[in-house]
Amino acid sequence: MVRKNVSLANQLVFEILALIDSGEILSDGQVLPSEADLSQRFGVSRATVREALAKLELGGAIIRRHGVGTYVSPMVTSHLGSVRNWLDEAPSFIDLIESEGYRADCTLVDIRIIPAGALAQPLDLLPATPLVAISRIFRATNIPAIHSANFVSFDLVEPELRPALLSAYTCSQTIYEFLQQWCKRKVYNQKSEIRAVAADDRLADLLDSSPGAPLLCVEEVGYGATMKPLFYGLNHFRADLVSFIEMHHPTVWLRPPPQAAAEKATRPEDHFLSR
Amino acid sequence: MVRKNVSLANQLVFEILALIDSGEILSDGQVLPSEADLSQRFGVSRATVREALAKLELGGAIIRRHGVGTYVSPMVTSHLGSVRNWLDEAPSFIDLIESEGYRADCTLVDIRIIPAGALAQPLDLLPATPLVAISRIFRATNIPAIHSANFVSFDLVEPELRPALLSAYTCSQTIYEFLQQWCKRKVYNQKSEIRAVAADDRLADLLDSSPGAPLLCVEEVGYGATMKPLFYGLNHFRADLVSFIEMHHPTVWLRPPPQAAAEKATRPEDHFLSR
DNA sequence: AAGTGGTCTAGACCACCAT
DNA sequence: TGGTGGTCTAGACCACTTA
Description:
The structure is a homodimer.
Chain A: H1 8-22, E1 31-32, H2 35-42, H3 46-58, E2 62-65, E3 69-72, H4 80-87, H5 93-99, E4 104-115, H6 120-123, E5 130-140, E6 143-153, H7 165-168, H8 175-183, E7 189-198, H9 201-206, E8 214-223, E9 229-238, E10 242-246, E11 251-254, H10 270-273
Antiparallel strand pairs in A: 1-3, 2-3, 4-5, 5-6, 6-9, 7-8, 8-9
Helix pairs in contact in A: 1-3, 2-3
Chain B binds a DNA duplex through helix 3.
């Protein structure tokens, strides 16, 4: 096997995926060749084969049974695009939409500088810290499917790039690409919390939906090299268009017992947060 | 290290978790000892240490940085219970609720035999096949938090156990334990789809909520040794109490373009499905 | 009994990051 | 330059399933 800056195991992952895709490997039943067989066939050690198979199993593409063999997952053949996206490190919404056969596009709703306000806490900043706030809509074949609001401390933007930010921003890049280009930072770790919420008037309008309609809400915080928060994201997905798939169990997280609702007030970030 | 039927790597996982919990290991900064250090300290090879660290990283407990070191995840110390649950193979709703400090209990709403109907498709059965249908409510300190409906082909139940099923069923066991006890089957693989839905009248009543209130809905299909479906589960979580956490990105799944809604009809499974 | 995946080792070298 | 995690190997033995 040839080495080209990507690990042998990862090359194997996509080669096996291609074999599944083409159907070549499945002639005898639905079973993949044994690990010993694969290691010989590709000229790598069995440990490397096992690492590749572990990734494919995590992605839901295959199933391994001790003492029996390795199977192709029954639901994977029709959704190889999703598996490939899972194996990607940071797929974009555009990729996700297109991998399901839709035509994808993104429009910028708003970008501006606002004070951190209530976002100071998750971002570990002071409330007066200026944030870059970006609001975008992603459409699947003209149907608005996702609203994405992202917040990054303006102080993180490279000083010489700051003047150009609001005018030169291009909305098709992911938040990871944004942080790379404008802040020279990399996201090392991310926490995503998935909730169900009811659409408010603003979100209903943006997503061409009805107020009160159920939405999937994903709240993200990305952490950088020193484990300090780099960005805060609040994404809403139209429930009739989007769902999430897990091949294993997700972590269920119970909130603390209900408390008195926080007092309502008009804050700059509400324009983006829409809760 | 002593071997007691659980792998060295898994023992290491929980020993490291205990070290994090006790704070012993974090004296110098927030960094875990190096892999070489850990392998020497516990008397195992570095490969085994790496396997344990990989699991901890997947569970969101630690963060590894190439060339730098291994850190304890910033959000993990306050939620070690959730991490331990994630590392479990099949945690029960009871465990999940209790790990967050609530008092958990389960009540049986209904158990009966119904024809498969619309569930014939996901379960790969004929519509007339009899199913065991189980409807349960899980409460967190008396607040109804989860409604769980599970469906298993009655033919899977061991013939000699069938007469006793409806009367001897105990509702506190997980669907995995149910399949083990009554069907002698093991779930090898599971697909979970996460959606947002609005509560209908029935679910609102069961969950002490309002019709139209957003709910997290998790639809599961568990597969057995031969990759045939063993059970179908439809779980609804009150959105104000439950959310899911991912330490990496979930797989986003777009539905096919909207189609005409299926015609409404009164079917036996609707009593359980409530959609 | 044969074949599969699961666990574990000891050692090597590479890539990355801080100093 | 030294230490860290990332990759990879060759080989051993164990545990499980099926025939």
